[in-house]
Design goal:
This protein is an all-alpha fold. It has one domain: Hypothetical protein af1432. The chain contains 8 helices and 2 strands, in the order ααααααααββ. Helix 1 crosses helix 6 and helix 6 packs across helix 7.
Length: 158
């Protein structure tokens, strides 16, 4: 996507920390095997702002906060925590949103079994333009087609 080495470093750190706020979410919600109730989902949604608030005092992580706090914002404004739309969402958060979703779909979770990479990619592509940035989804598809992303513990080669 034409990112500089510095931008990639910030993205990698933000991606590693994006769900740190889940330490503030009750395990009964976090590890629930079935669907979350509306109340439980509201609790789960707090992980983005909790994570940003945990990391905000660390001045060296200032540039990584958008990926931590905004990775569940959607291009159409239906995401959280703030309901931002396309141009309001930093690229870092747009990229982490796609990567996080692909990871969630292709790994075993308490609520679902891992999906095949091609199937998961198809589901991500179906959400391009509404939930996800089309350019990020296109870059993901190119990386998959070039063999840069393979499942075995989801190896990504940047």
């Amino acid at each position: 996507m034409g990112m500089s080495a510095e931008e990639l470093d910030k993205l990698k750190i933000s991606a590693l920390l994006h769900d740190v706020g889940k330490i503030g979410v009750d395990d009964r919600v976090l590890k629930k095997p079935g669907s979350l109730t509306a109340e439980e989902f509201d609790i789960m949604k707090t992980h983005t702002t909790k994570g940003a608030n945990i990391m905000r005092p660390v001045s060296q992580l200032k540039d990584m906060l958008p990926g931590i706090e905004l990775h569940h914002e959607h291009m159409d404004g239906r995401g959280y925590p703030y309901g931002l739309t396309g141009p309001q969402i930093p690229m870092m958060a747009r990229i982490i949103a796609v990567a996080d979703t692909l990871d969630a779909m292709t790994t075993n979770r308490p609520y679902q079994s891992a999906m095949d990479l091609d199937y998961a990619l198809g589901r991500v592509k179906a959400l391009a333009g509404s939930k996800f940035d089309q350019a990020v989804v296109d870059a993901l598809e190119s990386a998959v087609n070039a063999g840069k992303i393979r499942l075995s513990a989801l190896e990504i080669h940047v």
